[in-house]
């Protein structure tokens, strides 16, 4: 059993002072639990889902990108018009959109949403997926292309006079000035765990994203990206975004019953290649993030307070797939453990997508925000983490390993 460190009311020096929440927008009711054969948008469902995020108090929503999926720019624009506050994050692959056009589209979105646009650049972790849209650049050069892309986005938004460019990947003459964002340059997010990802993200990204990993391992990765940023002379370090797939219920025991039911259904869906791009995601993953997730899953099911890796194991770590399991209090305490290590952007999305988004908004976000408000008001940590120990107790471990068949 994992041992809990003695609880200290002192706020760690590494702790983020604020926390914002991200979800992922879903276009139809198909899930890993109940796959529905569809490639379309269920407009009524999408409106309901986005409204649930707004009412639930989320700050951002990610609009994902895939070769066979909906266009993330168009969906982000719809989110912007369906909400008043949520910031749409456009997932963008540099191979699909020329950088000056990408800058124009993002600035247009930012104007339409009065400064809410964010972009998450996906360099590409799978040669096969990249090739589906004609990208044959080797993986070790894709982050170099992303680096050049970032520079051109920022220049297109800020250069006051026309400029030309002749780089390794892009060339043009006499462009500009480009279409400007609403008020300030648009935040640029980057993810990945290859050496190239860390170099580009540390040197240039406003946000660096991770999947949920054991606390000490993720802390080392945060330290790494921040060290690269400092070495590049940056005075503002990248914000840290971490993603989980929480499985919650009223008590830890009920959450574990749900978790074991879920993982059996998810494994069945993946085995049948019945959801999304699962037929393309078998075999050894090419991206380092998935390799790391599978390595953690191979070593143990449970880490720290509530991190469960079996969901990654049964899906071949196809995307963000590690879970936090427990009561809302246990899961909120686990999220705060990551906040204490420096994460200030927390993405939580469930397996029962709409119902989970509603439940998180009702039961998780308020607990975390209450703790952050307490810290700001008192300069001390509250007792949530001390009172809800999760995997640091025998009872939780017993629920996690019980036979729920």
From TrEMBL:
It comes from Saccharothrix violaceirubra. Its EC number is 1.14.14.5. One of its GO terms (molecular function) is alkanesulfonate monooxygenase activity. InterPro entries: Luciferase-like_dom, Luciferase-like_sf, SsuD_RutA_monooxygenase. The keyword Oxidoreductase applies. It comes from the Bacteria. The keyword Acetylation does not apply. It holds the Pfam family Bac_luciferase. Residues 34-344 form the Luciferase-like domain. This is Alkanesulfonate monooxygenase. Keywords: Flavoprotein, FMN, Monooxygenase, Oxidoreductase.
């Amino acid at each position: 059993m994992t041992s809990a460190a003695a609880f200290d009311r002192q706020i760690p020096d590494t702790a983020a002072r604020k926390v914002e929440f991200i979800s992922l927008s879903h276009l139809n009711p198909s899930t890993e639990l109940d796959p529905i054969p569809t490639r379309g948008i269920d407009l009524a469902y999408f409106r309901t889902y986005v409204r649930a995020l707004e009412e639930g108090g989320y700050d951002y929503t990610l609009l994902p990108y895939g070769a066979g999926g909906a266009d993330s720019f168009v969906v982000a624009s719809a989110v912007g018009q369906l909400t008043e506050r949520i910031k749409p994050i456009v997932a963008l692959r540099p191979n699909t959109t020329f950088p000056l056009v990408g800058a124009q589209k993002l600035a247009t979105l930012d104007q339409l949403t009065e400064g809410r646009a964010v972009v998450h650049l996906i360099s590409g972790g799978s040669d096969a997926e990249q090739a589906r849209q004609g990208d044959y650049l080797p993986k070790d050069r894709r982050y170099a292309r992303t680096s050049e892309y970032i520079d051109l986005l920022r220049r297109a938004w800020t250069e006051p006079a026309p400029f030309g460019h002749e780089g390794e990947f892009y060339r043009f003459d006499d462009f500009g000035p480009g279409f400007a964002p609403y008020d300030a340059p648009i935040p640029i997010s980057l993810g990945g765990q290859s050496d190239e990802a860390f170099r580009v993200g540390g040197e240039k990204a406003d946000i660096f994203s991770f999947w949920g990993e054991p606390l000490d391992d993720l802390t080392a990765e945060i330290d790494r990206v921040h060290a690269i940023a400092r070495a590049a002379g940056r005075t503002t370090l990248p914000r840290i975004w971490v993603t989980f797939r929480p499985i919650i219920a009223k008590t830890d025991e009920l959450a574990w019953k749900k978790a074991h039911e879920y993982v059996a259904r998810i494994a069945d869906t993946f085995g049948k290649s019945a959801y999304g791009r699962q037929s393309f995601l078998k075999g050894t993953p090419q991206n380092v993030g998935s390799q790391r997730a599978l390595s953690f899953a191979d070593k143990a099911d449970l880490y720290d307070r509530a991190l469960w890796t079996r969901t990654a194991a049964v899906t071949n770590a196809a995307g963000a797939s590690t879970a936090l399991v427990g009561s809302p209090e246990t899961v909120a305490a686990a999220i705060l453990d990551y906040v204490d290590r420096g994460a200030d952007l927390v993405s939580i999305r469930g397996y029962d997508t709409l119902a989970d988004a509603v439940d998180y908004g009702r039961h998780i976000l308020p607990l975390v925000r209450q703790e952050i408000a307490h810290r700001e008001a008192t300069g001390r940590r509250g007792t949530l983490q001390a009172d809800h120990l999760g995997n640091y107790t025998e009872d939780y471990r017993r629920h996690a390993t019980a036979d729920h068949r």
